[in-house]
Specification:
Blueprint (H helix, E strand, L loop, with lengths): L12 E2 H8 L2 E2 L8 E2 L1 E2 L9 E5 L15 E4 L12 E4 L3 H12 L21 E2 L4 E2 L4 E2 L4 E2 L4 E2 L4 E2 L4 E2 L4 E2 L4 E2 L4 E2 L2 E3 L4 E2 L4 E2 L6 E3 L5 E3 L6 E3 L4 E2 L4 E2 L7 E3 L4 E2 L4 E2 L4 E2 L4 E2 L4 E2 L4 E2 L4 E2 L4 E2 L4 E2 L4 E2 L4 E2 L8 E3 L4 E2 H21 L4
Parallel strand pairs: 4-5, 5-6, 6-7, 8-11, 9-12, 10-13, 11-14, 12-15, 13-16, 14-17, 15-18, 16-19, 17-20, 18-23, 19-24, 20-25, 23-26, 24-27, 25-28, 26-29, 27-30, 28-31, 29-32, 30-33, 31-34, 32-35, 33-36, 34-37, 36-38
Antiparallel strand pairs: 1-3, 2-7, 21-22, 38-39
Length: 353
């Protein structure tokens, strides 16, 4: 890949210093003064790069690897060429993520769009009753409504709309084009471009002549500390209760979360997931992409749901589910294997479906 001017290399971190910060073991102490400046995939890593190895499947990529160092599990050290210095750790994936934060800190949250001096752009509108702590940055064409409160160190990108009474904590990043209303947002929260928080939920009652009558949505959205929400994701406010996103949860792009949904701490929700209203999701739940989750059900702590599943009923804590309708993973994989076998047999015999 050509030189990436969006994220230029670090000035350099010594390998012995990096190993200490990551809790890894530098297998060649004489290489401690070598510098790493950037992260890279194994196959095209060059001098000054750091990469990581997770399995033997990447063995062929090591043939072209010229990295200054590689993070890997002790069981994979024998695969690494002699010219590449090894940082040994049982948690290579986590260590690589931490190394990326050290080497590319500016990539950890969306950057400001303009190069204007820090502060409130004269091209933004901030209601006189809004209260902004020191160090808040507001970029052009943003509108901040009445009685809004924003904490120190928070960055508000261009074209953002923040409705009356919203509270946003410290060191948050609200990216270009985001829309926030009826929401209380904690510290260190990241909203990527186009995220919409706190709009009406989808609620209607039957009308007298067969149509639908809108049900008022008078709840809030509460987003706890260290949550990250992807581009064009929408989170509806509650009908009369609150929609809650728990601490440390990460939500991908283009996710829809309905009214009154409560999501626990440290969950991972991948792109195109739709979660219907009043669903309860526990802590540490992982939901694969394009999954649909029925409303008014409970998903227990630690559940893992495969991509493109349809969840129609409660899932007990600690279970792995997949398929449509979602069922225990063992049952789902058995059903897939049986269906594949039938299809293959029909092809062999020429039988029509």
């Amino acid at each position: 890949m050509e030189q990436n001017w969006f994220f230029p290399p670090h000035e350099g971190v010594r390998l012995d210093d990096l190993a200490n910060r990551l809790g890894a073991e530098l297998l060649d102490p004489t290489a401690g003064a070598r510098l790493v400046r950037n992260v890279s995939p194994v196959y095209r890593a060059k001098e000054g790069d750091l990469c990581y190895l997770l399995s033997r499947k990447a063995k062929a990529e090591l043939e072209t690897c010229q990295a200054s160092a590689i993070l890997c599990d002790p069981s994979l050290v024998s695969l690494v060429p002699d010219h590449v210095t090894v940082l040994q750790t049982k948690r290579a994936h986590m260590a690589f993520a931490l190394a990326g934060e050290i080497l590319q800190p500016e990539a950890m949250r969306p950057a400001l769009t303009t190069s204007e001096p820090a502060g409130i752009s004269p091209l933004a509108y901030v209601d006189p009753t809004a209260r902004l702590e020191a160090g808040v940055v507001v970029e052009p064409m943003t509108v901040i409504g009445a009685d809004v409160e924003i904490g120190e160190g928070t960055q508000i990108g261009p074209g953002v709309t923040i409705g009356s009474g919203v509270r946003i904590g410290r060191d948050c990043t609200i990216s270009a084009g985001a829309r926030i209303q009826c929401a209380l947002i904690g510290n260190r929260v990241i909203l990527h471009p186009g995220a919409c928080i706190g709009q009406d939920g989808f609620g209607y009652g039957p009308g007298p002549k067969g149509g639908m009558i809108k049900i008022v949505q008078v709840g809030r959205v509460i987003i706890q500390d260290d949550v990250e929400i992807g581009a064009n994701t929408t989170i509806d406010r509650g009908t009369m209760d609150d929609t809650v996103i728990g601490e440390g949860t990460k939500i991908d792009n283009q996710v829809q979360i309905g009214h009154n949904v409560r999501i626990g701490r440290h969950c991972g929700i991948v792109s195109k997931v739709g979660i219907a209203g009043s669903t309860r999701i526990g802590d540490g739940v992982m939901i694969g992409g394009a999954t649909g989750v029925n409303g008014h059900i409970t998903i227990g702590d630690g559940v893992q749901i495969a991509a493109m599943s349809g969840v129609v009923a409660d899932i007990p804590a600690g279970q792995r589910y997949g398929g449509i309708p979602a069922r225990p993973m063992r049952d789902f994989l058995r059903d897939v294997a049986e269906m594949t076998m039938r299809i293959n047999n029909r092809k062999k015999t020429g039988e029509k479906e």
